[in-house]
Amino acid sequence: MRVIITFIASSALATDAFAQAMYRESSGDGFGGFFLVLVILSLLLYFVPSIVASKRDHPNKGAIYILNILAGWTFIGWVGALVWAMMNSGSQQSAQPVIHYSSANSESGGSIAEKIKEFKELLDSGTITQSEFDALKAKAINGD
Predict the structure, then answer these.
(1) pLDDT greater than 80 at residue 130
(2) Of 57, 68, 69, 95, which sits most exposed with the smallest number of CB within 10 A?
Protein backbone atom coordinates (compact mmCIF):
# COMPACT_ATOMS: atom_id res chain seq x y z
CA MET A 1 0.00 0.00 0.00
CA ARG A 2 2.92 2.32 0.76
CA VAL A 3 4.20 1.79 -2.79
CA ILE A 4 0.88 2.90 -4.25
CA ILE A 5 0.75 6.03 -2.11
CA THR A 6 4.35 6.87 -3.05
CA PHE A 7 3.54 6.32 -6.72
CA ILE A 8 0.47 8.56 -6.57
CA ALA A 9 2.33 11.26 -4.64
CA SER A 10 5.27 11.28 -7.05
CA SER A 11 2.88 11.34 -10.00
CA ALA A 12 1.06 14.27 -8.45
CA LEU A 13 4.33 16.15 -8.00
CA ALA A 14 5.36 15.43 -11.58
CA THR A 15 2.03 16.55 -12.97
CA ASP A 16 2.14 19.65 -10.79
CA ALA A 17 5.57 20.55 -12.17
CA PHE A 18 4.29 19.93 -15.69
CA ALA A 19 1.21 22.03 -15.06
CA GLN A 20 3.32 24.91 -13.72
CA ALA A 21 5.49 24.78 -16.82
CA MET A 22 2.38 24.79 -18.98
CA TYR A 23 1.00 27.73 -17.01
CA ARG A 24 4.16 29.77 -17.53
CA GLU A 25 4.03 29.11 -21.27
CA SER A 26 0.35 29.84 -21.69
CA SER A 27 -1.02 33.30 -21.76
CA GLY A 28 -4.33 32.27 -20.21
CA ASP A 29 -5.42 32.04 -16.61
CA GLY A 30 -3.84 28.63 -15.93
CA PHE A 31 -7.06 26.65 -16.01
CA GLY A 32 -5.60 24.34 -18.69
CA GLY A 33 -2.76 23.27 -16.38
CA PHE A 34 -5.12 22.63 -13.50
CA PHE A 35 -7.40 20.63 -15.76
CA LEU A 36 -4.45 18.54 -16.95
CA VAL A 37 -3.39 17.78 -13.38
CA LEU A 38 -6.95 16.84 -12.51
CA VAL A 39 -7.22 14.47 -15.48
CA ILE A 40 -3.91 12.76 -14.73
CA LEU A 41 -4.73 12.31 -11.04
CA SER A 42 -8.17 10.97 -11.94
CA LEU A 43 -6.61 8.42 -14.30
CA LEU A 44 -4.13 7.35 -11.62
CA LEU A 45 -6.96 6.90 -9.13
CA TYR A 46 -9.02 5.02 -11.70
CA PHE A 47 -6.23 2.50 -12.32
CA VAL A 48 -5.28 1.90 -8.67
CA PRO A 49 -6.79 -1.66 -8.73
CA SER A 50 -4.68 -2.52 -11.79
CA ILE A 51 -1.58 -1.02 -10.19
CA VAL A 52 -2.17 -3.01 -6.99
CA ALA A 53 -2.69 -6.25 -8.94
CA SER A 54 0.49 -5.61 -10.89
CA LYS A 55 2.59 -4.77 -7.82
CA ARG A 56 1.30 -7.83 -5.93
CA ASP A 57 1.85 -10.01 -9.03
CA HIS A 58 -1.69 -11.32 -8.68
CA PRO A 59 -2.30 -14.50 -10.71
CA ASN A 60 -5.54 -13.00 -12.10
CA LYS A 61 -4.14 -9.58 -12.89
CA GLY A 62 -5.28 -9.76 -16.52
CA ALA A 63 -8.88 -10.26 -15.45
CA ILE A 64 -8.50 -7.49 -12.88
CA TYR A 65 -7.22 -5.15 -15.63
CA ILE A 66 -10.23 -5.97 -17.80
CA LEU A 67 -12.68 -5.50 -14.92
CA ASN A 68 -10.99 -2.22 -14.02
CA ILE A 69 -11.16 -0.92 -17.58
CA LEU A 70 -14.70 -2.07 -18.39
CA ALA A 71 -16.49 -1.63 -15.07
CA GLY A 72 -14.17 0.65 -13.12
CA TRP A 73 -16.25 3.68 -14.05
CA THR A 74 -18.92 2.37 -11.72
CA PHE A 75 -18.10 2.60 -8.04
CA ILE A 76 -19.02 -1.06 -7.48
CA GLY A 77 -16.82 -2.22 -10.35
CA TRP A 78 -13.88 -0.18 -9.10
CA VAL A 79 -14.26 -1.41 -5.50
CA GLY A 80 -14.71 -5.00 -6.73
CA ALA A 81 -11.52 -4.80 -8.78
CA LEU A 82 -9.63 -3.28 -5.85
CA VAL A 83 -10.84 -5.94 -3.39
CA TRP A 84 -9.98 -8.69 -5.86
CA ALA A 85 -6.51 -7.19 -6.37
CA MET A 86 -5.94 -7.05 -2.61
CA MET A 87 -7.05 -10.63 -1.96
CA ASN A 88 -4.55 -13.41 -1.51
CA SER A 89 -4.31 -15.70 -4.49
CA GLY A 90 -5.24 -18.78 -2.46
CA SER A 91 -2.26 -20.71 -3.78
CA GLN A 92 -0.60 -20.32 -0.40
CA GLN A 93 -3.27 -22.41 1.27
CA SER A 94 -2.57 -26.10 1.21
CA ALA A 95 -5.44 -28.46 0.64
CA GLN A 96 -5.84 -31.10 3.30
CA PRO A 97 -6.31 -34.62 2.04
CA VAL A 98 -9.64 -36.29 2.69
CA ILE A 99 -9.27 -39.77 4.05
CA HIS A 100 -11.90 -42.32 3.10
CA TYR A 101 -11.98 -45.61 4.93
CA SER A 102 -13.53 -48.38 2.93
CA SER A 103 -14.96 -51.59 4.23
CA ALA A 104 -11.64 -53.26 3.36
CA ASN A 105 -9.91 -51.05 5.90
CA SER A 106 -12.45 -51.86 8.59
CA GLU A 107 -12.11 -55.60 7.98
CA SER A 108 -8.35 -55.50 7.88
CA GLY A 109 -7.77 -55.00 11.47
CA GLY A 110 -8.23 -53.66 14.88
CA SER A 111 -11.01 -53.21 17.28
CA ILE A 112 -13.41 -50.32 17.23
CA ALA A 113 -11.42 -48.61 19.97
CA GLU A 114 -8.20 -48.87 17.95
CA LYS A 115 -9.90 -47.39 14.90
CA ILE A 116 -11.34 -44.51 16.91
CA LYS A 117 -7.90 -43.93 18.45
CA GLU A 118 -6.40 -43.77 14.93
CA PHE A 119 -9.10 -41.33 13.85
CA LYS A 120 -8.43 -39.21 16.95
CA GLU A 121 -4.73 -39.06 16.05
CA LEU A 122 -5.68 -37.88 12.58
CA LEU A 123 -7.93 -35.24 14.12
CA ASP A 124 -5.23 -34.07 16.51
CA SER A 125 -2.66 -33.80 13.72
CA GLY A 126 -5.05 -31.65 11.69
CA THR A 127 -5.38 -34.14 8.84
CA ILE A 128 -9.15 -34.42 9.27
CA THR A 129 -11.76 -32.04 10.64
CA GLN A 130 -14.03 -32.57 13.62
CA SER A 131 -17.00 -33.39 11.37
CA GLU A 132 -14.93 -35.95 9.44
CA PHE A 133 -13.83 -37.48 12.74
CA ASP A 134 -17.44 -37.74 13.90
CA ALA A 135 -18.48 -39.40 10.63
CA LEU A 136 -15.60 -41.90 10.75
CA LYS A 137 -16.30 -42.67 14.41
CA ALA A 138 -19.99 -43.31 13.63
CA LYS A 139 -19.00 -45.58 10.74
CA ALA A 140 -16.64 -47.54 13.00
CA ILE A 141 -19.23 -47.92 15.74
CA ASN A 142 -22.02 -48.92 13.32
CA GLY A 143 -19.75 -51.33 11.49
CA ASP A 144 -20.26 -49.66 8.09
Answers:
(1) yes
(2) 95
